[in-house]
Amino acid sequence: MMSPGMVFPAKRTTAQANTPDAETPANNRTTAQQLLPVQQYASEVAEFLRTHKSASVVIIVSDTGSGKTTQIPQILTDKIFDDYFGGPKRKIAVTQPRRVAAVSVATRVAQEFGCKLGEEVGYSVRFDDMSNPQTKIKYMTDGMLVREAQTAWMLEEYNMIILDEVHERSLHTDVLLALTKKASVRRRKFFDRQDKEACAPLKILLMSATMDIERMRTFWKDAPVLYIPGKTFPVTIKYMPAPVDDYTHTAMVAVFQIHREEDPGDILVFLTGQEEIEEMVRRCRQVAKSLPPQQANIQFVPLYAGLTNEAQMRAVSQTAASAHNGHATMRKVIISTNVAETSITIPGVKYVIDSGRAKHKVFTSATGMEVLKVEKISQAQAWQRTGRAGREQAGVCYRLYTEADFNCWPQHPIPEILRCNLSTVLLQVVEMGIEKPLAFPFFDRPEEENLQAAVDQLEWLGALTQKVESGDLVVETTADGKLMAQFPVDPKYARCILRARAHRCTEELLTIVAMLSSDSPFINPAASRTAAAAAHEKFSSNEGDHVVLLNVWRAFRDQKKGNVKASRAWASQNYINLRNLERAEKVRNQLREVCVRKKIDLSSCGGNTTAVRRSLSEGLFMSAAERLPDGSYITVDTRQTVFLHPASCLFKTKPACVVYGTLIRTAKLYVRELCLVEADWIDAVGKEYFLAMRQRMAEKLAGKTTSAAVVAEKGETSDAMEVDGKNADSVI
DNA sequence: TTGTGGTGT
């Protein structure tokens, strides 16, 4: 067992500049604490907006705690709404990357505004719309606004779109950056030329933390910028004098050092994942047992998104200030993933310990492969973590890396739009009437290869057609594509639903696709793994994991005829996560509504699971794999060696041919969410696709005679290719 | 024979 030791030099008294906002001229910390900075600057904000009344885009920059999200929309409605916008008065949309934020901010603003939530001030998030036609300020998730744009891409319902937390660069915020840019130009032209009563110009307000402002100004042709100081307290930064190998161990030593030497205040530790966190919590509790009685006032709580709401609440709720051991107060140590970076705010934190790492998902369009790996975070993320120590009082951030290391890290994380499968977004954008998706004004343009891969994939799925007109790629959605765009799921699953019409099993496919859109219904607690596996056995199938999901759903639905209590008991006995199933139910209802609206036949196949598998094969044919003699598999299109994931119900039976939902590299290159299919089915639906892929591979190989290409030709694993410093993408 | 960073329609 480790012994608590000293990892950091003695306490330094000088507070260093803590966040980038300390450098902005407007920043000072002598503000009256009862007022939010924006309230103090209200007249300046109003003046700024009035001065730039003719600008279609303005930028407001501010860090945590300025109150910009709650106050600025109110300033717009209170002070200048009447004369600020030309044309008829409609709504202000304020987008948020997270639903909880949209809901909670709207609730607070409705109170301040003195109206009932859902009237002048409201919100709109998936499954929950609290707004009406008279709503003036509508908080919404960015994804929700993208959805709305699909039917009205010029966003005529709004006078102004406020994009909040732009610096986070969420996928949908990036889509909106491009879309609103296009819409504002079009609306301006429309307004100038035509009926001024029918359509007002569209104003855009970007709200961001202090970063990347110059690039943003360039993108928006020198948009005016207003800086507002945030309200945070100074945070002292302490770096490691030398690099550490074992950051978990170092984090533990730091925790106990702080506990021994520093003032009261909770500690927030940033690690990378559930397993690592549970392990550290366990070891900390062990060490705490041997602390002297006067130091026993310490407790450890894990925090990650996979926890139940109750467990998350336990981590977030304020430490009971009640005396412990007669006099000392309890110190709480929250050991968390990056969920505590932005999504969850924890009161009472005075110390942050930052491992400097996080798990990131990387997607490769050429192979459809995902990798989830631990990587160094960006400087912006490090500042975000640091800021968590200064919300209520001055704090300290212990960085488990050297200053020299930190200075070498990238300034910003890679935006999501550059590291995800673009097919869903692309179909949405095309359905808005954007015919030349390669010319869409992305703030950060995805690699053309990735965009083209998404276009190709959508074409193979029958969602669109593409052609080249005077050098530009022009695409158009097909009738099926228009239907597919209606479903809020990956287009390949939308295609499965559409194919289910022919096989008379749309009800079953709705269930399966809804279940795939939600987190797994299975709970596998480490302590009772055998019991859980035994309980799950009754849902098993030799036809694949999709049929297993269907079985779970049917059991759940039959249970639901009973009462809530019975439902809970059933879930607990069967190691089933009820929350995830209830979410799947909501998704299913939404998908079903799309079918009703679009007059898509709803039919059920009963026990005929062949029809179900056939439908799946026709949407997932691009993700097919065949068994090799040694029990491994090879993907039919890109000829990569892959392995069935051991958690799949087909792991043992190893059928000759499967389609899969995801291809992910962890210990090996695994395929998951497997469905047993006949090779004939795949050939029938994917013949042209496989021919085209084979031809493309041959062309690439002809052009490249590197050893990597030869290895790829033999169908070796991409491991072998990586030895050459290449990967499968470079040869396919 | 494995494993789930985090969002969202």
TrEMBL record:
<dbReference type="GO" id="GO:0045943">
    <property type="term" value="P:positive regulation of transcription by RNA polymerase I"/>
</dbReference>
<dbReference type="InterPro" id="IPR011545">
    <property type="entry name" value="DEAD/DEAH_box_helicase_dom"/>
</dbReference>
<feature type="compositionally biased region" description="Polar residues">
    <location>
        <begin position="13"/>
        <end position="27"/>
    </location>
</feature>
<dbReference type="GO" id="GO:0003724">
    <property type="term" value="F:RNA helicase activity"/>
</dbReference>
<keyword id="KW-0547">Nucleotide-binding</keyword>
<keyword id="KW-0347">Helicase</keyword>
<dbReference type="InterPro" id="IPR011709">
    <property type="entry name" value="DEAD-box_helicase_OB_fold"/>
</dbReference>
<feature type="domain" description="Helicase C-terminal">
    <location>
        <begin position="251"/>
        <end position="433"/>
    </location>
</feature>
<dbReference type="InterPro" id="IPR001650">
    <property type="entry name" value="Helicase_C-like"/>
</dbReference>
<dbReference type="InterPro" id="IPR007502">
    <property type="entry name" value="Helicase-assoc_dom"/>
</dbReference>
<dbReference type="Pfam" id="PF00270">
    <property type="entry name" value="DEAD"/>
</dbReference>
<dbReference type="Pfam" id="PF00271">
    <property type="entry name" value="Helicase_C"/>
</dbReference>
<dbReference type="Pfam" id="PF21010">
    <property type="entry name" value="HA2_C"/>
</dbReference>
<dbReference type="InterPro" id="IPR014001">
    <property type="entry name" value="Helicase_ATP-bd"/>
</dbReference>
<protein>
    <recommendedName>
        <fullName>RNA helicase</fullName>
        <ecNumber>3.6.4.13</ecNumber>
    </recommendedName>
</protein>
<dbReference type="Pfam" id="PF07717">
    <property type="entry name" value="OB_NTP_bind"/>
</dbReference>
<dbReference type="InterPro" id="IPR027417">
    <property type="entry name" value="P-loop_NTPase"/>
</dbReference>
<feature type="region of interest" description="Disordered">
    <location>
        <begin position="1"/>
        <end position="27"/>
    </location>
</feature>
<dbReference type="GO" id="GO:0005730">
    <property type="term" value="C:nucleolus"/>
</dbReference>
<dbReference type="GO" id="GO:0005524">
    <property type="term" value="F:ATP binding"/>
</dbReference>
<dbReference type="GO" id="GO:0003725">
    <property type="term" value="F:double-stranded RNA binding"/>
</dbReference>
<keyword id="KW-0067">ATP-binding</keyword>
<dbReference type="GO" id="GO:0016787">
    <property type="term" value="F:hydrolase activity"/>
</dbReference>
<feature type="domain" description="Helicase ATP-binding">
    <location>
        <begin position="49"/>
        <end position="229"/>
    </location>
</feature>
<keyword id="KW-0378">Hydrolase</keyword>
